[in-house]
């Protein structure tokens, strides 16, 4: 990478007004080059207007100079990609993937299973569980399949938790029609289609504490259960749409709270990503210079989590310039790091200076393998025998029984070679039951030899249960 020489001067050319920060950066030093140096991803959405060619050239210049990860504001959502049943439209998404490739950027896919921005035709099936399952599965199969190997990470499930209580969001068409197992299934299906993609659960208000009544506290319990059950989840995305501390009197979120979530997730080998950051002020108020500087400090505090926590790697802002921001719909303003004229704000300076001066402590330095490792992440998915038999799983009622993999004291072991299943260690007759990932029994047989022919079952992922006397073993198998 080209390194900055001592070319000091006002390079971005304009009013850098941050108090105490001399805003002069070397010409080739960008957020992106510094993010690369620190082994993190820093990014901004491509706004919907960009896809239609409606933004000035300067927008794209800034975007590709400053960022190394990208996500589409709306263009990979359900209503954009499958506006009519089984008719897919990938044009805009393809445009972004091409742009990312040309500019060497990582791609986030957003979002597969979400209650919002779902086309009307889906709601026609709201009382038909089987149909809704196949609609979601077909969507995932097509969309993830289309961008397989090109989209590096997916928000598989977005905003499934209620705002007010520690429970699932009840008015989602997926939750109402299918039940909470739509979540487990969506992860499993996505992983099946693209086993190399990193898979996230994404939500907002996760910076509001991890106590059991807070959203992140509820989520943590679910993540523990998913990990225990071998559901292929690798990351939690914290949207982090927050309001400036002094203008939101009810503000209860903080960078510290989000950091505690990161630390809890680390224990589960799950990453934390900041996926949609903006820090808005209330609409209508007069925003002063010192307000903007305080906003910059908050941007920096959230960045610190990504720099300092070994399992955090992504800092993505929901927009480039205040001129094109979804925040007005939230009754907020000026939440981004470039102003209406595409000039960097104190928040930009704050992020830049932090990236320039950050020195990782030796033992926690992120290495390429931590920040960008996409191979080691799949251990949970492959570990199909849960170890914890004693802990009371208070949320287990929300899981499909078939996916809950029970480990019982067992002398049995299971091996599969092609379509031949062998069960070893049995002293009496063995019964084998095969379930699909929704828990529906699809095959059952028994014998004393321990050798079973599964060639009549269609290709796919299944849960296989074998019982012999009081012994039982349950494993997920992939039949090819
Ligand atoms: C927003 C877009 O920015 C808007 O253009 C659109 O009208 C609504 O959605 N959480 C999410 C994002 O996961 O997809 C949302 O994006 C913002 C909140």
Q: Could you characterize what this model shows?
A:
This protein has 480 residues and is an alpha/beta fold. The protein is built from 15 helices and 17 strands. The chain has helices spanning 31-37, 48-51, 57-66, 78-81, 91-102, 120-123, 129-146, 173-178, 181-193, 215-228, 255-267, 289-308, 346-357, 368-371, 379-382, and strands spanning 41-46, 69-72, 106-114, 153-158, 198-203, 235-238, 241-243, 271-282, 312-317, 332-333, 413-417, 420-424, 430-435, 441-447, 451-453, 460-468, 471-479. The protein has an eight-stranded parallel beta barrel with strand order 1-2-3-4-5-6-8-9, surrounded by six helices. It has a four-stranded antiparallel sheet with strand order 14-13-16-17, with no helix packed on it. β13 and β14 (441-447) form a beta hairpin. α11 (255-267) packs parallel to α12 (289-308) and α12 packs parallel to α13. The longest helix has 20 residues, at 289-308. (3S,4R)-3-hydroxy-2-oxopiperidin-4-yl beta-D-xylopyranoside is lined by residues 48, 73-74, 158, 239, 276, 326.
């Amino acid at each position: 990478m080209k390194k900055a020489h001592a070319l000091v001067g006002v390079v971005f050319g304009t009013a850098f007004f941050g108090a105490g920060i001399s805003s002069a950066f070397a010409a080739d030093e960008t957020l992106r080059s510094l993010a690369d140096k620190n082994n993190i991803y820093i990014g901004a959405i491509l706004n919907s207007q960009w896809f239609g060619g409606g933004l000035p050239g300067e927008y794209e210049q800034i975007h590709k100079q400053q960022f190394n990860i990208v996500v589409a504001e709306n263009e990979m959502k359900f209503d954009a990609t499958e506006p009519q049943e089984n008719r897919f439209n990938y044009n805009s998404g393809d445009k972004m993937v091409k742009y990312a490739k040309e500019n060497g950027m990582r791609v986030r896919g957003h979002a597969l299973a979400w209650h919002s921005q779902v086309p009307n035709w889906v709601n026609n099936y709201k009382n038909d569980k089987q149909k809704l399952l196949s609609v979601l599965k077909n969507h995932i199969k097509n969309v993830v399949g289309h961008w397989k190997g090109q989209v590096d990470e997916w928000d598989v499930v977005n905003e499934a938790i209620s705002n007010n209580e520690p429970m699932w969001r009840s008015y989602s068409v997926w939750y109402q029609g299918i039940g909470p197992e739509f979540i487990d299934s969506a992860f499993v299906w996505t992983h099946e289609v693209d086993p190399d993609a990193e898979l996230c659960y994404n939500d907002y208000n996760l910076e509001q504490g991890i106590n059991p009544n807070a959203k992140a506290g509820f989520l943590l319990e679910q993540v523990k259960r998913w990990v225990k059950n071998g559901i292929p989840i690798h990351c939690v995305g914290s949207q982090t749409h927050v309001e400036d501390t002094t203008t939101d009197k009810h503000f209860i979120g903080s960078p510290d709270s989000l950091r505690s979530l990161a630390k809890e997730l680390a224990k589960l080998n799950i990453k934390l990503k900041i996926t949609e950051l903006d820090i808005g002020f209330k609409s209508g108020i007069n925003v002063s210079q010192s307000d903007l500087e305080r906003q910059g400090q908050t941007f920096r505090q959230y960045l610190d989590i990504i720099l300092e926590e070994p399992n955090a790697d992504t800092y993505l802002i929901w927009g480039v310039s205040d001129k094109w921001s979804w925040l007005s719909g939230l009754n907020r303003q000026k939440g981004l790091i470039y102003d209406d004229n595409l000039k960097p704000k104190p928040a930009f300076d704050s992020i830049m200076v932090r990236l320039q001066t950050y020195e990782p402590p030796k033992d926690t330095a992120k290495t390429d393998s931590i920040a960008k490792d996409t191979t080691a992440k799949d251990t949970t998915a492959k570990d199909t025998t849960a170890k914890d038999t004693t802990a009371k799983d208070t949320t287990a009622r929300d899981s499909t029984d078939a996916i809950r993999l029970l480990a019982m004291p067992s002398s049995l072991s299971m091996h599969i070679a092609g379509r031949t299943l062998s069960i070893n260690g049995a002293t009496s007759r063995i019964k084998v039951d095969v379930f699909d990932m929704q828990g529906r029994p699809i095959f059952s047989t028994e014998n004393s030899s321990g050798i079973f022919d599964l060639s009549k079952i269609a290709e796919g992922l299944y849960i296989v249960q074998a019982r012999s006397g009081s012994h039982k073993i349950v494993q997920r198998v992939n039949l090819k």
